[in-house]
Amino acid sequence: MLSFEANDFVIASAREQRVEHVTITPDASNTLVRGTILANDGDGTYSVLAKTAVASASMAVASHAITINAQNVDPATIVVKSSGTALVLGTDYTVALDDATGYTVITLKSASAYYAAEALDVAYSTTNIQDAEVILAEDVEAGNSDVVATVYVAGDFVIEGLTAGVALTDAAKRNLKNAGIYLVHGIEA
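^ that's the sequence the OP posted. Answer follows.
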């Protein structure tokens, strides 16, 4: 583990750190904090990672598991219910990412009262984490309009010092690595 100071996320390493100036769209607070991971909006601008809620729906259970057929599910947002009663993560079910498909799999635990269920209600949120490409290099007071800001487009960074706003799944970390952003764990000094 690498040592880092609280709120610091940049690591001096052999890998080059590069910065660029890009146009960013502020979030609802109109303030973006240094270390925030931003997504490419596809129109030449960047914005904070966002969640899109998917309403609760009945999903079939097959072999004691439910597959959410969607990419970039934020595992922290999954809610599983049976007849209005919420199941408990870790007690009634586990959540894992199927690396082959990118889909999230909910597996019922054999000790759970819901193990034999044929269908359960599942709600969740997806994110635009697949579009994450840059890290904000400075605090930005954006007001209500787009601003130009300095961002890191490549380098090594301490994950605990970053702000994502959504869960950084293994798939998200791979996406960032493919964009030139390498994340490592550190310990606070």
